[in-house]
Amino acid sequence: MRRLTVLLMAAAALLPAADETRQERAKRVVNEAVQALGGDAFLHMEDRVETGRAYSFYRNSISGLSIATIYVRYLPAKPGKVELEERELFGQKQDAGSLLFTEKGAWDISFHGARPFDDKRWASYQESTLHNIFYILRQRLNEPGMNLYSQGTDFYERNPVEVVDITDAEGVTVTVFFDKITKLPLRQTYRRRNEQFKDFDTEVTAFAKYRDVKGGIKWPFDVRRERNGEKIYEMYSDSVEINKSPKDSLFTIPPGTKMLPKEQ
């Protein structure tokens, strides 16, 4: 009887709302997700600090592990642009090197100096950030040419989900699975052009273990990324803090740092 009840509840969750177009349904699902993430508090958060363990992978095997502290500060939104500053500090004492991302570029900073990203790596960061569902919800929903389209319902890891395509003015589509019950994003996928092989890579990111943080905002503490079916990155956060007003100096190259040639 209990199993039957669960199945009936899941089936009911998959039923569409009456008299909705695909566009209206998608807009409703996305608006519900924004509210589930914290509503106005989410839309107006100024900065975020995450601390945890970051893993990188090569051919599904761990190629790197670090304690990471990630500082993100949002800037006024501009259509089709990445408008945030980010600093990733590594090591228990945040002294084992760092990465810096600004509007003007990105640098790998170590005791040797600050080395600018090569053009390909910099473009990859911008593209990934621009098509991250949390960045889309926080910064891009009101962009001209942004279209939402419902693909209906499905199941993801036994959870009933609403599937929505979000397509920007450049024609790039991010497909997002929103939990039918919690309304939160569980998975996103999009294709990006691989210039080397003249085809496309499929980027998939999964979000789990949402927790309440400051002001009623919810944030995923587990993030996993895959490319073409192979795991490339995982982040397990121990803490996430909102609106901590990090110092401006975090988002600049430290004075006296030696400037190195661009990556090759």
Report what the structure shows.
With 264 residues, this protein is α+β, with helices and mostly antiparallel strands. The protein has a 13-stranded antiparallel beta sheet with strand order 6-5-4-3-2-1-13-12-11-10-9-8-7. The model has no long low-confidence stretch (mean pLDDT 92).
Quick gist of this model?
The chain is an alpha+beta fold and 264 residues long. It has helices at residues 2-13, 22-37, 40-43, 119-130, 133-140; strands spanning 47-58, 61-74, 84-90, 98-101, 106-110, 113-116, 147-156, 159-167, 173-179, 185-194, 199-212, 218-227, 230-242.
Per DSSP, the total helix count is 5
Derived structural class:
alpha+beta
Tell me the name of the CATH class: Mainly Beta
What is the third-level CATH name, the topology? outer membrane lipoprotein receptor (LolB), chain A
Shape annotation: globular
CATH architectural name: Clam
The CATH H-level superfamily is: Lipoprotein localisation LolA/LolB/LppX
State the domain count. 1
N/C terminus separation: 63 Å
Taking pLDDT < 50 over at least 5 consecutive residues as the criterion, the unreliable ranges are none
Largest sheet, strands/sense/barrel: 13 strands, antiparallel
| Rg value | 20 Å
Beta percentage is over 45%
| SSE sequence, one letter per element | HHHEEEEEEHHEEEEEEE
Percentage of residues assigned to helices: 10-25%
Widest β-sheet, arrangement of strands: 6-5-4-3-2-1-13-12-11-10-9-8-7
Topology, number of strands: 13
